[in-house]
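job 3f2a | input accepted
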Amino acid sequence: MKKKLLLHSCCGPCSTQVIDVLKDEYDITVYYYNPNIDTQDEFSHRLSEQKRYCNIVGINVLEEDYNSEEFYSCVKGLEGEKEGGARCPVCFKLRLKRTAQKAKMLKFDLFGTTLTVSPHKNSEIINKIGYEVQNEEGISFLEGNYKKKDGYKKSIEFSKKYNLYRQNYCGCKFSKEK
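job 3f2a | predicted structure (178 res):
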């Protein structure tokens, strides 16, 4: 019997490669929790694409409502940080912590994230935060660095194959400004 994995996902394109790598080993449910996304329209567009892709590959999606105030209150004082700076780990922790809490509440075996498929995200920092959250919440974290073995390139290929919307920024308004 496969372990149940709650996989945080930022968007459909990033989830493609990660799901492909993990689907044979885990019973995956995608968790779409992204209060960092700058507008309701962008949030909804990404969610729609996430659901469309997961429907194609037979993966369930759990979603949270759009609530950007969670993100803005969490990163208050870090608005001027450059992309990849001090604001990003705070955002990663916000999303990973909520994923762990949801996984624990719903009796999943472990939680993980698709964030490490991006070449713009530091996998070491994300995995370190994942282990911190594991220790805080008491549920196992699945470490990953899905950009390895051309993972990011493969996610682009999957996106083309399934005609998925690929955004050109992480989601927060600050990443568009820098």
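job 3f2a | The longest helix spans residues 87-105.
job 3f2a | closed
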